[in-house]
Amino acid sequence: MPRAVSPSPSFARRRRRVRCLAVSAALLGLVSTVAVVRTAGPSRFSIPPRTLGTATWNMCGVREWNCGGTGSRAAKRQELQRLATRFGAEVILLQEACAADVEAVRRDLGPSWHTAFHPYTWRDRTGRTGTVRCGTAGPAGRAVLSAYPLSAVRTVPSRQPSVGVRRGILCVSIAAQDVRVCAAHLSPPRSDRSEPGRELRDDQLNALVGAVPGRRTVYGGDLNVGPPGGNNPDSWVWPDRPYRVHRECDQGSGRPGPARATHVSRHKLDYLFTGLPVLECRVRDTGVSDHLALLIRVDTGSG
């Protein structure tokens, strides 16, 4: 499997631990609201190619989440656009993205590009709720940016903190490639401020893998957990299916093993899984986030 790593000298300098966010979030329950979908004209892909390039990237767009020193909004937009124009990503899964920035990049990429966006919400101890915001850049959330039209857009029900930030799972279908894509952002440890010891990632991972088909899918995102096996004490949160039925971008062959870091803490937190043949896996440091971008290319012409 070809691999290319594009590190930046700033990688080692930017340190931000996987955080227990102090921002409050929504009630423990199920996410089931409808995402905002934006399109711009007909798709230019009348004959889909036989491969699909997909990226996942946590943009670190919420400055209050220890992202103040990771680069300007303009720089982040530029790097997001480069994932498409220079690195061949036709579908990009985003976390900690600002709605205004995602929409601006969609416009800049041209009339064939489409987006789906769903905001993060929060709930505090008094019961007050709201939407996490990127200051003047509108809501913060997870998104899918696609060179193909999107259909069957929905959020997947998953267990969330009763007091803390509600992240979640956003799924879309790309009919032109007959592929189901899901973008996830799971809760870090101690996310539920009413019960910090409560583990949510096991339920969330089960919800994620239960939302995708066995073969024609690409899914992942910032899962806030290391790969199973080895010395990872959180291995138990992983269901069998991601590595047994599907294959992770950086998995190689066989069981999960050592993988390249995708976070400045030198841990792998970002993943892309698929049931399709993997043609390429790349890790790229954009230089403007505490997460690296992960890019996969799959063969959509087989099966």
From TrEMBL:
GO molecular function, one term: catalytic activity
InterPro entries reported for this sequence: Endo/exonu/phosph_ase_sf, Endo/exonuclease/phosphatase
Residue ranges constituting the Endonuclease/exonuclease/phosphatase domain according to the UniProt record: 65-291
Gene3D superfamilies documented for this protein: Endonuclease/exonuclease/phosphatase
Annotated Pfam families: Exo_endo_phos (PF03372)
Name of the featured protein: Endonuclease/exonuclease/phosphatase domain-containing protein
